[in-house]
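Recall the central idea of this unit: under ordinary conditions, the amino acid sequence of a chain determines the structure it adopts. In this exercise we apply that idea directly, starting from the sequence alone.
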Amino acid sequence: MMRLVVCGALLMSVAGCGKKAPQAPVVLQGWHQLEGWKGSCYFPPSYKDSDRMTQNTVREAIMSQWSGDRDDGVSVSETALERIETALLGKPDAVKGVARQNLDYCKRYMAGETSFDPWSGWLSGLGRTLTEGDCPWPPLRYQQHDYLEVDQAWHFEGRVCKGDRIRIKVSAMDQYRLSDNGPWINAEGDTSERALGEKYECTIEGCYVGTVIYRFVDQQGVTTIGPVGTGIEWTAPEHGTLHLQVNDDGTWFDNVWRKKGSLVDHAAISYIGLDE
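Accordingly, the structure predicted from this sequence is:
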């Protein structure tokens, strides 16, 4: 009886020895060259977006390969590299996704499955892809000041981003006239004379002869013109640029500011960002 029990215990022990504990899959991190590869690829670690130190390490690692530092046949132009770096510095949370995509291209290239062309093509356009739709300059969340030039066409450039809320302001007390015998007017223009005809830049409602007007040109070249007068609040429909001028017929030489003794009027103009 004792013999049977011992044998049973031995059988259970042998059976138990045959079972192996499951092993966790190996997770590669950092630079690795797998068997059959002609070079190494960077395997980015898993990290939280708030971990800026790891984020910087990953960005610097993949960019070192793109710049040709690893002598593995991988490099892009300085222009493309600068665009990518600028985009990633401005959008640090994009580093993780870019590093993963880069690893996919690298694996196929190093394994000999593809030439460098697909990878190079992706890298060449990556900077533009990352910044597509972004405003090319800071939002107008400050104040910009100058003086109105009544004898010049479009001037006082303001760069705006889509959605910027702006107050365009022109001082009301300063006066000018557009001809030797014309009336003295301020930025509202000669409200007794509506601007009509192709010689005037603005002929919509609110545009009179001599009114201060704005021109907005978006990045596709679409132009919008409207009245400002002594001031309006305006929201940028797209990224683009603003300019001002008086609504004249194009004969700028006879436009003059009013003089009072030694004092000459000169209207102040402002772009004032309304968002913090």
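The chain has a mean pLDDT of 91.
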